[in-house]
Structure prediction request, 238 residues.
Amino acid sequence: MTVAAPLLAVSNLRARYGSLPVLRGLGLSVATGEVRLLIGRNGSGKSTALKAILGLIAIDGGSIRLGEEELVPLTTRARLARGVALVPQAGSGGRGVFPHLTVRENLELMGAVAGDTPDFGIAWRLFPMLEGMARRRATMLSGGQQQMLAVAMAMMVRPRVLLLDEPTCGLARGPSLELMALLRRLADEQGLAVLLVEQNVSLTLDHVDSVSALRAGAVVAEVAPDTLRDPAWFTRVL
Prediction:
């Protein structure tokens, strides 16, 4: 693909947890229609980078631009309304869904957070299976179905930029590959700029356009996906 000018541009981004610096001058960009993979060892700052872009953590300095607009002064809700959405990492609390709300209520809530009238057709077109589960509580869904719901919730804000943190964690290979193919399709057909954190790199290589390698909170290499087919590269660079 021919990559357009950056839609999301992050430069010299710095953040810390307490007295511990995590992001140390992070710089990266993602263009309309591009899927960029962000890789690095545990503790390198990948998840922190996604949270900082959406405004979920305070930063010490730097710039986060969406097109011509600077996002740093904006609240998380304002960034959602501008079209930046996050599918969070699965954890002990679930997959970023509200477990005791129904599928429909989860989607409705996300639409309301973005200040928009919910268009459930967005979710049903992406994941027809969810429409038949609209009245089912999210806690009754399988892990794969919850992940579908988490992605659908993010899409309810009609994002221009989609951030995903380890979306295949805990999923079988089949659903994981289907999810990667979906991200590729969203970038190609809807022009989304996708920034993906994923430990299972082999799942992504046929679906991403570019790779940023993170070490100690800064990008140390930007490479083509095929570079990652060489296992020795990780040892040399990361």
The helical segments are 46-54, 76-82, 103-113, 120-126, 128-131, 143-155, 173-190, 231-237. The mean pLDDT is 93. The first strand starts at residue 6 and ends at 17.
